[in-house]
Amino acid sequence: MFKYASSTALNQVVTRPPGWRQATRDGVWRMLLAAVLTFATILVGAGVAHADPPGTPCPAGSFCSWPAANFAGKVHALGVQATAMEQCVRLQQGIDAQSFVNNTGHPVTVYQDPNCDTEAEFATYPTGSQAPQATFVARAIKIWSH
User: Superkingdom of this entry's organism (predicted)?
Assistant: First the structure.
């Protein structure tokens, strides 16, 4: 009734292709390398998000801007008292701010366009906001009364 397979047939079923151990080791090393690279990328990315507060504090009632990222370079402060509310105000002539602090006590819209044109980039920052690396070069602001 039962037919038994010959030992030659069994050997063919159990036999693995040549080099299977090396292929398995290569696959494990590739997965380990991918995991290490992913972890390293996460660590490097987490370090970029941190920025120290500005070395020169921004006075109360002022919008302060720096010409370089991470509050580097000479600070330029624009006081609320010298600024018309809800009017477009250009930052200092020739200055393209790449980092800034809103310490005005009011929301401030920062514009890429020096004339506050909304066709270019713009964003509104609440009071107390710090932007160590602005997503666009700031050239003008508008301080809101509310």
Answer: Bacteria
